[in-house]
Amino acid sequence: MSTQTLVLVPGLGSDAAVWRRTIAALGDACRCLVGDTLDSDTLPDMARRILDRAPSSFALAGVSMGGMVALEIMKAAPSRVTHLALVDTKARPDTLAQRLYRRLANLVVASTRDFEGLARRSQSSVVHPSAPQDVRAELTQMSLRVGRNAYIRQNRALAARGDLRKVLATLAIPTAVIVGAEDRMTPVRLSREIHALAPGSLLHVIPDCGHLPPIEKPDITAALLRALLSRR
């Protein structure tokens, strides 16, 4: 397991910082690489960019949008992935109402004069109320670093994505489905759906956790990833 490479994919408006605490908690359990999703216009293009930079064989974990990118990777190159973790994500496409909401969110982000304040306020729907202040501050700084243009571009990519549920039935590798019990953005029922459609997958619901276990509950997330990597 010490030589295994784990590719980690960030979510919407996120960079490597969303995985930093989990990477630290993993220690020398594996070699971690964080995929770059910031310069692509579609989920398949994000998947291609990650595949271009990844080794020939690797384990894969994606959170939120990153889980959808992970499923695009499984569709494009399933033979290269040894283990899969889908964290607080969904496989079904957006409804019309959800696509309209994304369009409205993009308009608000594009027009606000207080992007930092907007980033802080949005955390009420992202992390659990018990999330400490240093986690919240780190998320705000990440949002500012990634910027509004990348957020808008990624939100458009999410609105345009297809139905990824059909990919789940093709999975033939150890798979973990991980979700925060209090996730308001992708509720537990969506992870239960993924678990039901992915053969042999294991479902893990993390108590007192919102949408981002890799930064909210890094020790638990790392333990679940180590257990996944030990499966054959």
From TrEMBL:
It comes from the Bacteria. InterPro entries: AB_hydrolase_1 (IPR000073), AB_hydrolase_fold (IPR029058), AB_hydrolase_sf (IPR050266). Residues 6-223 form the AB hydrolase-1 domain. PANTHER family: AB HYDROLASE-1 DOMAIN-CONTAINING PROTEIN (PTHR43798:SF29), MONOACYLGLYCEROL LIPASE (PTHR43798). This is Pimeloyl-ACP methyl ester carboxylesterase. The lineage of its organism: Bacteria, Pseudomonadati, Pseudomonadota, Alphaproteobacteria, Hyphomicrobiales.
